[in-house]
Amino acid sequence: MLQKTQQDNVQQQLFVNGKLEAVYGRGTDPDNQTKPGDNGKAASPNYITLSNFDPAYRPVTNNYPSAGVGQYAVQAGDTLQGIAQNAYGDSGLWYLIAQANGLASDAELRVAVGERMNKLLDYAPK
């Protein structure tokens, strides 16, 4: 465990096997480290209470993760319904994959085994 004290503010960092696992206590705001000084004084640290027990966590927002198109290697015997079940958890959404790939039905799914087929992954049920 590492401990840093600044102006009576104590911030602790917990490491396990060399990996940062938690930051807690009182330390400088990682997003806004300083606040402007008053009456011409220099800026001073912006202290906040920290309690981050999963530093690798990044919350889902409108910008993260970014929507994108994935790819799927078609296997012998695949159906659009089966691919949709794996991709979206709902076989009834097969038409999204068909539309993304210019297909009308499973009959048009015939491609050489191992050939890559675009699969729309940015679908989000409302």
Automatic annotation (TrEMBL):
<protein>
    <submittedName>
        <fullName>LysM peptidoglycan-binding domain-containing protein</fullName>
    </submittedName>
</protein>
<dbReference type="InterPro" id="IPR036779">
    <property type="entry name" value="LysM_dom_sf"/>
</dbReference>
<feature type="domain" description="LysM">
    <location>
        <begin position="72"/>
        <end position="111"/>
    </location>
</feature>
<feature type="region of interest" description="Disordered">
    <location>
        <begin position="22"/>
        <end position="45"/>
    </location>
</feature>
<dbReference type="Pfam" id="PF01476">
    <property type="entry name" value="LysM"/>
</dbReference>
<dbReference type="InterPro" id="IPR018392">
    <property type="entry name" value="LysM"/>
</dbReference>
